[in-house]
């Protein structure tokens, strides 16, 4: 389903993120991969850089915007979707655009 | 030289992201039914998924405030993706190719829920019932396997009753004969 959604909304990271935190693997693997350098040495990778925080925040908002419009539609039909676009979708996409425009080290 | 935003600036981004969810929640509260009818599986499933989505969304925002624990937010985002996938499935059903692909990939005999929206009976409400049945099945299974020191007395029986109740709705002649989960006998 995430592959379909990724194609539909052009969000290629949806299935990738799912796979990297797959329920069939240990959830710590992604953390360990991020804290290992290409040479194989292990470094402290627990602290998120500004770049990674930006990515996580944008993804978090994007998933909420997509999922909550389903919640509203399934709860009340399409009557509120225009209002949802104005009050939630627009500030959400503005925030994501602002974050994406940040010049980060 | 590039310099990242200050911690105060990050805080304002996080607050803006939180306000977006609060605004969405206010819209939902305006239209949300005060009580959900017993056979309104669609709203029951949607309500369950909405709670998961919001809890994990706000948890990620809390974790993002501190760079030391922010990495854990990725794991929680995966839970949000699951809610999104379930909501999209309940709303739209699944394409024929996707269902066929899963069957070919799995060596087991298919007991896949017939979620093709081309089927007459496959509506968001029946797909909601499929989802609730699947959830109740796994909840019962997990509760049955858990040690008695970890659960309340009667928790397993209660989970079984809930699963059977959804199963009965699923197997009623008016509803489709296919289930999202294999029924235990």
Describe this structure in words.
The complex is a heterodimer of chains A (105) and B (185). Chain A is mostly helical. Chain A has 2 domains: 1-46, no CATH class; 48-105. Chain A has helices at residues 2-9, 13-20, 29-34, 50-76, 81-100. In chain A, helix 1 packs antiparallel against helix 2 (13-20) and helix 4 packs antiparallel against helix 5. The radius of gyration of chain A is 17 Å and the shape is globular. The mean pLDDT of chain A is 84. By secondary structure, chain B is mainly alpha-helical. Chain B folds into 2 domains: 7-28 and 38-92; 113-146 and 153-171, no CATH class. In chain B, 64% of the residues lie in helices and 0% in strands. Chain B has helices spanning 7-31, 41-64, 72-92, 96-105, 124-145, 155-171. In chain B, helix 2 (41-64) runs antiparallel to helix 3 (72-92), helix 3 packs across helix 5 and helix 5 (124-145) runs antiparallel to helix 6. Chain B is globular. The termini of chain B are far apart. The relative contact order of chain B is 0.10. Residues 175-185 of chain B have low confidence and may be disordered. At the A-B interface, helix 1, helix 2, helix 3, helix 4 and helix 5 of A face helix 1, helix 2 and helix 3 of B.
Keyword list:
heterodimer, A: 105 residues, mainly alpha, 2 domains, 5 helices, 0% strand, B: 185 residues, 6 helices, 64% helix, globular, disordered C terminus
What's the SSE blueprint?
The complex is a heterodimer of chains A (105) and B (185).
Chain A: H1 2-9, H2 13-20, H3 29-34, H4 50-76, H5 81-100
Chain B: H1 7-31, H2 41-64, H3 72-92, H4 96-105, H5 124-145, H6 155-171
Helix pairs in contact in B: 1-2, 2-3, 2-5, 3-5, 5-6
Provide the residue-averaged pLDDT of chain B: 81
Share of helical residues of chain A: 55-70%
Beta-strand fraction estimate of chain B = under 5%
Oligomer: heterodimer
What is the first-to-last residue Cα distance of chain A? 35 Å
The gross shape of chain B turns out to be globular
Ends apart, CA distance between termini of chain B: 67 Å
Q: Could you estimate the helical fraction of the residues of chain B in percent?
A: 55-70%
What string gives the helices and strands of chain A in order?
A: HHHHH
Total DSSP E strands of chain B: 0
Largest sheet of chain B: none
Taken from the alpha-carbon principal axes, the silhouette of chain A is globular
